[in-house]
Amino acid sequence: MENNELLEHFDRMLRSACTPAAIREVEEGGSFDSMWEPIAQSGFLDALVSENAGGFGLTLAEIQPLLRALGRHAVPLPVGETMVARAMLANAGLDLPPGPITLAVALHGAGMPVPFGKTCAHALVDFGDVCELVSADAAGLVTTGVRGSVDAMLTLTGSGGGRHIERPDNGLLPIAAVLRAISMAGAADHLLEMTTAYANERVQFGKPIGRQQALQQQLAVMAEDVVAMRMAAQLACAGGWPLNLAAVATAKSIASTAAPRIAATAHAVHGAIGISEEFDLQLYTRRLHEWRLAHGAETYWNRILGAARLEADRCSIDWIRDAIFA
Amino acid sequence: MFDTLTLARLPEEDEALRPLVRQLAQDAVAQMPMDARARSWSGFDAAFSRKLGQEGLLGLTLPKEYGGGGRGPFARFVVVEELLNAGAPPAAHWIADRQSAPLILNFGTEEQRQFYLPRICKGEALFCIGMSEPGSGSDLASVRTRAERTESGWRVNGQKIWTTNSLHSDYMIALLRTSGNPQDRHKGLSQLIIDLKVPGITIRPITDLAGDAYFSEVFLEDVDLPPDALIGTEGEGWKQVTAELAFERSGPERIYSSVVLLDGWIAHLRKHGRIDDATRALVGDFTARLATLRAMSIACTARLAAGESPVVEASITKDLGTSFEQELPNAIGDDLASHPGEAIAAELYRALAFVAQIAPSFSLRGGTREILRGIIARGLGLR
Lengths: 326, 383
Known about the structure:
The complex is a heterodimer.
Chain A (H helix, E strand, L loop, with lengths): L2 H15 L2 H8 L5 H9 L18 H13 L6 H13 L9 E5 L7 E2 L7 E5 L3 E6 L5 E3 L8 E3 L8 E4 L6 H29 L1 E2 L2 E2 L4 H26 L6 H26 L10 H13 L4 H14 L4 H8 L3
Parallel strand pairs in A: 1-3
Antiparallel strand pairs in A: 2-6, 3-4, 4-7, 5-6, 8-9
Helix pairs in contact in A: 1-4, 4-6, 6-7, 6-8, 6-9, 7-8, 8-9, 8-10
Chain B lengths: L11 H4 L2 H12 L4 H4 L8 H9 L18 H14 L4 H17 L2 H12 L5 E4 L15 E5 L2 E12 L6 E7 L11 E7 L5 E6 L8 E11 L4 E2 L5 H14 L8 H13 L5 H29 L5 H27 L8 H13 L10 H11 L4
Parallel strand pairs in B: 1-4
Antiparallel strand pairs in B: 2-3, 3-7, 4-5, 5-8, 6-7
Helix pairs in contact in B: 2-5, 6-7, 6-8, 8-11, 9-11, 9-12, 10-11, 11-12, 11-13
C-alpha cells in the first residue's frame, strides 16, 4: 500500500474505534478489549516487525504519520509502544503476546509515570542492563489517581519474572520519548483544528471571535508551535535504528516546551466550555500535559543535548548538521 | 495542518557546493572580529560578491542560458547557510540573488532577462528594493510614489525609505503607483526597475542605532526612465510583490541572524569549562530550536523547489525563526553577566551589544511579526 492509503486506512479505523465516548469509557476504567480488537485485527501492530518474522518491515519514518494519527485521535492505548515492543520481541525470537504492551524505564527507581500503565497487558521494562517483558499484573503499575488518566506509576525496581531480551544501546527511553513526541504533534494538530474551527463559529460582539486580531495572533503562534513539533518529530525518525539521541532530544524538547503553550491557547480561545468535562478539548490538553512529562520533560532532554553540544569544538550549524541531520 | 511542510533533505549534488563556499567565506572573514561577523547578512563587500559570482555561486536558481547555475533553491540554501555560518558579508549580491533575479526571470521580457541576469550572476549588478515609503510601511498598498507614462517611457516622482543598500546598488526595483490613487489599494501598482545612476535621484543614508548606514532615503524627482523600466505587467505589481515575498521570507537568513553570537557564546562556555546543568539546558534548548528551524527552512526550500510559492509556510518559519534570533541576545546577555568570574572577551561583548540592539529589526524587515501572523491566520482560515 502507498503511504497515504496506509494512513487513510489507519485513520478510518481509529476514528471508528476511538470515538470520544469509547475513549472516556476506557479512561474511566472500563475494558479496553473492544477498542483494542479492531486495532489488533488491522495488522498494523506488526508494522515494524521484519518481513522475515511476518511483519511489514516498515521504518519508523514510514509509520510516523500513523503514530501521529494516534495522538490526533487521543487513542488511550499504547499502540505505538506495542508496535515497537513487538518488533523488539520478534527480533529476539520471542513469541508475541496478545494485547497492548507499554514501554517503561525502571533505571531511576520507582515513582515515574508510565504512559498507558493502566491500559496495557504487558510492559516492556528497561532495567538498565536488560529489558524484561513483564505482565501488567506483575509490573507494579499503580494508578496515579489523576482523573481520566490512563497512566500509572511504576513501582517495580527488580525483575517481574518475565522473559528477558537484550537491551538496546541507550535503552528504551529514547524510543519511548519519541513516541510521545510524535503523539504530541498529533494531539497538537487536532487542537489547532478544533480551536480554529471554534474561533470561526463562536460569535461575540457581533462577529466570530476568530475575526479579532488578538485571537488571530495567538492562533498563528499556536500554528508555528504545531508545525515545529511535527518537524522535530520527523527529524527524530529520519535516521532509523538505532535512534539518534541528539535528534530524539530535539524532538522531545520541542514538543514538551510547546505543549503547555498550545494547551493554554486552545483553552483561552475556547473559554469556559473548554474547562468542562463533556467537551472534548480536555481529552487532548490533558494528554499534552501528561506526555510533556512522560519520559523526560524539556529540561531533561535539553541537558542531554546541551552536554553533547558543549563537548564539540564546532560551530552550531556544523554540529547540528552532523549530529542531528546525519 | 500545513501538512505540505514536511521534512526534506538537501540533495547531495547541492551539498557538494559546501566546501568551496566555506573556503571563500573563511577567507573573507579571516580578519573580521566577531562583532563585524555578527552583522551577518547586512555585511557589505562588493569584491566578495564578485568573487562568489566568478566561482559560479550566485544565481544558482537561474537557468544556465542566463549565466545561472541551472540548479535550484536547495543549492542556494547551501550557499547562504555557509555564508551566514561564517558571518561573511553577502549584502552586495543578497537582494539580487534572492529575489530580484527570480522576479526578472518570472516576469521580465526576454530582453530584460538577457540584460540583467548574466550580470547578477557575476555579482556585477547590485539591486535594492524600493517598497517602504514615509507613509507606507506595513500598509504597503498605500504607496504614493508615482510613475507616469511619458512619450519616452516613465517619469517617477516620490520618495522611498528604509531602502537597504541603495547607496551602493546599481538598480532599485520599486513598487510604484502607475494608476489610480492610494485609496485604490492593490490596484494600479506596478514594479519598475530604476537605474540609480539616472538624473533626479538623491540617496541619503540613514545611520542606524548601531552606527551602521545600511539603509537610506531615496528621493525621486522627475526621474525619466525608458519604457522597458516596467517589469512584468502594469497594474500587477501587488501580485508580483507577493510572489517575491515568498522568496524573501523563506530563506535560512530568518533563523541564522544571531548564529555568530551563539557560536561566540558557546566558545566562551567551552573556554571556561562551564558544563553545569543550567548551562547544558540552555545550550540544549537553543540547539533543539535551531535544528528544528533548520528543518523548517529546508522544508520551505523544498516547496520553492517544487515550484510553489509557500507564502504561509515561509511566514510560519520566519516568525518562529526571528523570535528565536531575538531571544538569543537576551538569554546570552543574562548568562554572561550572571557569571562574574568569567571574563567576557571584548569582541564577544561588542557582538552581544550589536545583536541585542539590532534584534528588533529582525521582526520588522521583510514583513513585521504582526503582518506575518495575519498571513498565517489567513492560512488557518480565520480571515
